[in-house]
TrEMBL record:
Biased amino acid composition, Pro residues: 75-91, 133-143
Superkingdom in the source lineage: Bacteria
A Pfam family the protein falls into: DUF3108
Residue numbers spanned by region Disordered: 1-25, 72-155, 365-395
Name of protein: PROLIN-rich signal peptide protein
Composition bias type Low complexity, residue spans: 92-106, 113-132
Compositional bias ranges of the Polar residues kind: 365-379
Length: 395
């Protein structure tokens, strides 16, 4: 077969056959591309129409927005006055002995005429005293309206034991030493940390019209010297040993750990008031500054502690300023008198320090008056006293 083959030109065309085929091929591809674009446009229009007119079936209802309520510190409500004692019953006089009436001679009937006035009421029978008109009953004394204020119930004294975890790894047992005698309080939190030494936070003071009132707060981290903050109630100033600056002391001001018991006392007094979305502001002093802590109620959650699972109310501290990366979460459990069953602090570098209840999760049964606020508070010693000896962790 020859390498080159010459074709004769088509007699009806003025151009060679190969050039005619080459010119028809681009036109065919243009028609196909135009048809594909038209089909794609029709499909897109149909899908848009279906999407616009489609109605969702069994769509879940939209969740109602959370009603956020901002609570600010205010005085504690005084205890309700006891009900008045009932008045003693007045003894009835003894009945006189019955004597038969004496016979009375009938009086002559009077002569009535048109000018004689007629009596409006029948006269009393002779010898019978006329009854006095009924006196209206004495109106009950008005009940004084209850004064507004925060309901408050300070937890009773107890030696609380917690498992401590650092970044999820089990550490030694920590303790919260809490004393409340109705007038003064003391709180010492000890958290052992490996290779660093224990972190010890101490708060002591008294109880006033705004609840827990710290007088001195100190924190010692490991082997470093303790930093102290003094709450001077006379000058209304907070003085620090770490810095020469002073700051004003607000009513109801707390320190970093007394705020936990202040929150627990408020929730113990009115647990139904702290629903999801409710945010309460606290003035909290650290070892060198004082700031506002907005603590929000997250909701009820299940927490697993050494004694098992229990329901606890979750509270979280909202960012105090833009870029705040330090977090604080608190879980208060009604089964142990609204004491903290879990405390989790997240440092800006990501390190997490956790306290997890290591006692028995029993429901308090006995109740006695709380001397600090006059309200009823849980006082089950088995739940609020020293928890039982630590056992092996559950698998």
């Amino acid at each position: 077969m020859p390498l080159f083959q010459f074709r004769r030109p088509h007699p009806a065309s003025g151009e060679p056959p190969d050039s005619a085929a080459d010119s028809a091929s681009p036109r065919r591809w243009v028609r196909w591309a135009l048809a594909a674009l038209i089909v794609a446009g029709l499909h897109w229009s149909a899908m848009r129409w279906i999407e616009h007119n489609r109605q969702p079936t069994n769509a879940p209802p939209e969740a109602p927005p959370v009603q956020v309520e901002l609570l600010t510190p205010k005085p504690i409500a005084p205890p309700a006055p006891p009900p008045p004692a009932p008045a003693p019953a007045t003894p009835k006089p003894a009945a006189a002995p019955h004597t038969p009436p004496k016979a009375v001679a009938p009086a002559p009937a009077p002569v009535l005429s048109a000018t004689t006035p007629q009596p409006e009421a029948p006269a009393a029978a002779p010898g019978v005293a006329a009854s006095a008109p009924p006196t209206p009953a004495a109106a009950p004394a008005p009940t004084p309206a209850a004064s507004s204020g925060d309901k408050f119930s300070v937890p009773p004294s107890g030696e609380l034991r917690y498992d401590t975890l650092v970044n999820g790894m089990m550490n030694q047992t920590g303790t919260i030493h809490w004393i409340n005698d109705g007038q003064r309080y003391e709180m010492v939190v000890s958290i052992p940390l490996p290779f660093v030494g224990p972190y010890v936070y101490s708060s002591k003071g008294h109880l006033d019209g705004f609840g827990i009132a710290p007088e001195q707060y100190s924190e010692q981290r490991g082997r470093r010297a303790a930093d102290v903050a003094i709450f001077n109630r006379e000058t209304k100033q907070i003085v620090y040993t770490k810095t020469p600056q002073n700051q004003p002391l607000a009513d109801g001001a707390q320190d970093r750990f007394s705020v936990v018991m202040q929150l627990a006392s408020l929730v113990r007094g009115a647990p139904d008031k702290y629903t999801p979305g409710v945010t309460r502001q606290f003035s909290v002093a650290d070892n060198d500054s004082n700031e506002i802590w907005p603590i929000e109620t997250v909701g009820d959650e299940n927490v697993q502690a050494r004694g098992g699972f229990t329901t606890a109310r979750h509270f979280t501290r909202l960012p105090r300023k833009e870029g705040d990366r330090r977090k604080l979460d608190i879980w208060l459990a009604p089964s142990i008198g609204w004491l903290p069953v879990r405390i989790l602090q997240t440092e800006p570098n990501g390190m997490q320090i956790e306290l997890l209840w290591a006692g028995t999760l029993t429901q308090p049964t006995a109740r006695q008056p709380d001397t600090a606020s006059g309200t009823q508070g849980a006082s089950d010693e088995s739940a609020l006293a020293a928890p039982e000896t630590p056992q092996a962790d559950n698998p």
